[in-house]
Design goal:
The structure is a homodimer of 503-residue chains. The first copy, chain A, is an alpha/beta fold and 503 residues long. Helix content of chain A is 42%, strand content 12%. Chain A contains 19 helices and 16 strands. Chain A has helices at residues 11-30, 45-54, 78-83, 94-105, 117-120, 147-158, 177-193, 217-222, 233-246, 260-291, 295-303, 327-338, 346-356, 358-369, 397-406, 433-437, 450-453, 457-463, 479-487, and strands at residues 34-39, 63-68, 109-112, 123-126, 132-133, 144-145, 166-169, 204-206, 227-230, 255-256, 377-381, 410-414, 429-430, 442-445, 469-472, 491-494. In chain A, helix 10 packs across helix 13 (346-356) and helix 14 packs across helix 15.
Amino acid sequence: MTNERFSLPDDEITRREAQKIKELADEERKKGKKIVVVQGLGFVGAVMSAIVADCEIDGKAPYYVIGINRPTAGSYWKIPVINRGESPLKAEDPEIWKIFSRIRQKDNIRASWVEDAYAEADIVIVDVNLDVVKKGVGRAQEAGVEIGNFEKAIRAVARKMRPDALMLIETTVPPGTVEYIVKPIVLEAFRERGVVPPEGGPLIAYSYERVMPGDQYVVSIKKMWRSYAATSPGALEQARQFLSSIIDTEGFPLYRLESTTAAEMGKVLENSYRAMNIAFIHEWTRFAEDAGINLFEVVKSIRVRKGTHDNMMFPGFGVGGYCLTKDTILADWASRTIFHRKDGLKFSVEAINVNDLMPRHTFDLLKSGMPDIAGRKIAILGASYRRDVDDTRNSPTVALYDDIRAAGGVPCVHDPYAATIVGREDIVVMPDLEEVLKSASAVVMVVNHRIYQELSAGFLMNLVQPGSCIVDAFDILTDDKIVRLKKSGHVVLGVGKGHIRFL
Amino acid sequence: MTNERFSLPDDEITRREAQKIKELADEERKKGKKIVVVQGLGFVGAVMSAIVADCEIDGKAPYYVIGINRPTAGSYWKIPVINRGESPLKAEDPEIWKIFSRIRQKDNIRASWVEDAYAEADIVIVDVNLDVVKKGVGRAQEAGVEIGNFEKAIRAVARKMRPDALMLIETTVPPGTVEYIVKPIVLEAFRERGVVPPEGGPLIAYSYERVMPGDQYVVSIKKMWRSYAATSPGALEQARQFLSSIIDTEGFPLYRLESTTAAEMGKVLENSYRAMNIAFIHEWTRFAEDAGINLFEVVKSIRVRKGTHDNMMFPGFGVGGYCLTKDTILADWASRTIFHRKDGLKFSVEAINVNDLMPRHTFDLLKSGMPDIAGRKIAILGASYRRDVDDTRNSPTVALYDDIRAAGGVPCVHDPYAATIVGREDIVVMPDLEEVLKSASAVVMVVNHRIYQELSAGFLMNLVQPGSCIVDAFDILTDDKIVRLKKSGHVVLGVGKGHIRFL
């Protein structure tokens, strides 16, 4: 996110930083503030830190925030960047930039890397990642869950935290994690330290966020429903008070669940539900193409049924992002590993396989329109996984790119927002659309960014040579444009748009 | 539906009936009415006939209705019953009774069996069944589709109908049926009869209803969105005019689709979507039970997300009724048979298998609570497939009944509305709850009828002996009641209610 280089801190700097953190915490506590330590300055943790630091009650800041990130080569830079009042995220929401600058001015945040900070906390918010490693497309059942890294993070906190401090976990985890993994780790660490847990057990709460990348990022944390649960009544009350000070609970009342496992299940269930509904409509996409139907129109005709059918998904190119591609795998892992159900959540995991294979369908359409891919330049329009954002995590563009490469074609990717694809920095993403389209034998439009929808048929006809193939994988081209392109000799195909052959 | 016996009409009576139909049609046409012939007086056709006959524009009836049903031993009785002003359906909607009596008084309907009636029609509405024959639980892919019966019905109309009459099909059919099956049959019949079809082809339209059994039956036909499509602009306009006169199109505007295949797909897609969402949550039901979670609470906590998640299904006992149990099979059949896609809609059909197996889960819960089923009386509360209705078509109660029987148990079924289970008249359904509960070793509550929800813990404790097992398969018992029942020595289990073991 930044091109500057920061050298990693040495032991001496770390020792001084630890001293500084202690002094800061003492000082802020004297001002009557609670110390909130956020573990993990990633996509959610960084913004959560900023929102907590920005929080005011009756004109006063109730919290001082220390954001902790590990000092690795890849992510240490976030710490100095936050500390000089900048956002570590290149986000579409202007509010994020304002908030990081504001909390710097208020001097109410310290980004750091020293784990001693956990000892100062009244509340530790756990926002580290819990990643899934897929072993290949269509093999979601075999994916690895990096529970070891997560356990290590929890242990780091448990070794330092005060027994009366609240540990509030926001990371998406396999259901049962707090009860069967986190709580035993905390108890063991307390025992090793000779610390007596509060009556009723360690204070651990779980509450997941529903963050949505895009221009409403901050709103999607503050003005959004939250479920929560805790391991004891004391932890529950602390969590309730804290969340109520951060979330607009008048508009979005908190939902208390009976156990942390229930709250953990809420997150993976709601994302599995979306993933399932995407997989479902994908199967009908092929059916609609076989039958010569515009599935977008059929789905629209069904979505008029408000309340029961209005969230039916439209056909599309693929599923990306951090949550929908992996949360079902966490649930399946919990079912098999924690609750010993041999076949886990077979049906739901199959949806992940269907979704991971979605981009292959677009590739097949391309092949049907231009069988001879080898040696041809093929433009791919779109690298992010969502309309008008720059977020490229698990972008399905990668799968199409690899398929075209494997067939000997020369893919050339354009995106107006994203400059690279996370984890696939070898793929060149170009910002100049004309450059990408020039002399391409085929164009595959994969993200419904506004600028693609606004392209005129004339513009495309000028830049894309007649006889070449245009695949619309996301309902980007209107029927009028398709008719003009077909008339000018282009082969046009569309995901879920079987009616094109009759246009 | 009636205990009276009616003798089937002989040839002489049929000859006279044909004469009578002709006279009636001539007479009504002279009054300026259009003749609407409804083919099939089943669940939808009978009520549709009545609604069309009851229709008024500027205080005048625009249509005279002839309802046609085959004179079989099992269903001939509907004809005399309708003709004397009664409803052939035992429906919860009082409006149905009023409407049948009113159209009798208006003398605006004739139920009959003579196929010559199709020759009189300005509009023929096809409302015959298109059934699916399953070969066993979990084998939905192998199910038979009775397309032959449907083709026969279409042929009967095509042999008689005027070439300028509109054939409006409402039967749920495999997508592609109008284009690839109905239209060729009509063209062939016209050719055989030496009849020239209108320019643009025969006038065939497709529009599916979204009828919902229960006390809003008539409303669910008239005040409900309709999609429609037709084989030609002429047919489209006729269909639009007719539907606009029947449906409240101000509140529920018609949705025109580009082709009859698209309209046909709408119906099976929307029902497949519901079936998929039920199958999805069923898998999580078992997970929630393993994890000791109340899944109903978790789903409620997610449904606060209006517009995207508020239609998430709750756990339940099983899926019944006419549509959700079969419509996906029609779609899969079309994909494989009409559009030659070898593996059809595999993923969606698997949902039907999951749903057909749902009652087995309740049986497994029962066994876990009372391993020794043989020789025991087991009360099953609920025979219909939906709350507070008497509709027992494809009731999942049958699967539980059969499982208990197979295990040597003695199932005893209660329902406050249904007196028998359609197609399984061997199962005795008793109306007296106390009789059913008396000396039962276990009680399985499978339908959330209001009267079951209103049962007090005291009532159950008095009638169901301590130590016996109570399975709540539909969130019928509150936690308070469960606590009382557990305290009094009952074993209580619940579908999706893993938290019961902690109560």
